[in-house]
Amino acid sequence: MMAVTDLPLVASDRKTSGFRPLKVLHHFGKLIEDKEDTEQVFHIIEATKGRKSHAQAHAFIRSPEGQRMMSGGVDIPAMLDDHARWADCAAETVAAHYIAFMKREGLSAAGLVAESHKWAPPESLPQDQTQWYFDRLRDTHDLFHVLTGYGRDALGEASLLGFSYEQNHNKGILFIAYAGARQIKKVSGTKAPLFAAIKEGRALGLAAAKIAHQDIAALMREDIGEARKRLNIGKPEVYRQCLAILQGEGVAREQLTLGGAQAA
């Protein structure tokens, strides 16, 4: 298998789709029909990767840090799923919080990779350095949850996608965020300021350093409070207020699961 560093920056068969609204609406409709159909999220993201997403990918790949990480050849999902590797980490490290989150939610980094491969087997994807970057965005998704404090309830996922949009600039992610908030309001009739929670997520994501650009192995060993401070990740106060309002209205968090939003 060819090393990533030997691949071209952009393969000849890579296409920049821009925003394809009809395709997005088609796949979002399927997601609403079956909230566990995570595959639809990846279709939406792929239908909306534009020039800005690619420009960010290429800038990072060409940077000294990007070159170093790409040359390192680290398999991020395998590293994150190797819980024994982090056994010596203190209780307040990112690693300890990450492992607790993944066990509590019944998740694995490899599981998210498998979901993405349902719609696009690895052999069908362009073989280039750009794909290495987009895979990195996917593989760090659950670290976004841990570092931001957004839960996996529907509003937490939607708000995190607002955060992720400002980190990654994929319009499909932003579409799912706002469409998800609209669906929550439709299902629950809540008076909680759901769209303000998405807006807050965007503001937090814009202010924060790029999480996917970090040395993940080093980040895992940081104290989580210090990591949030270094990365300038603020607290999702509006999101928490919305959860309190929903709870007061008698709406259970598990009633509002919008499958899918487990994507970068």
Detailed description of the structure:
It is a single chain. This protein is mainly alpha-helical and 264 residues long. The protein has one domain (19-256). Helices cover 61% and strands 0% of the residues. Helix 2 (39-46) packs across helix 7 and helix 6 (94-105) packs across helix 9. It is globular. The two termini are 26 Å apart.
Low-confidence stretches: 258-264
How many structural units, i.e. domains?
Answer: 1
Shape: globular
| Helical content (DSSP H or I, runs of 4+) | 55-70%
Q: Give the beta-strand count.
A: 0
How confident overall, as mean pLDDT?
86
Instruction: Output the structural class.
Output: mainly alpha
In angstroms, what separates the terminal alpha carbons?
26 Å
N-to-C series of helices and strands: HHHHHHHHHHHHHHH
Tally of contiguous helical segments: 15
Largest sheet: none
Content of β-strand: under 5%
Q: Evaluate the radius of gyration.
A: 18 Å
Task: Summarize the SSE layout with pairings.
Layout: H1 21-33, H2 39-46, H3 51-62, H4 64-72, H5 76-81, H6 94-105, H7 109-119, H8 129-139, H9 141-148, H10 154-168, H11 171-188, H12 194-207, H13 216-220, H14 224-231, H15 237-248
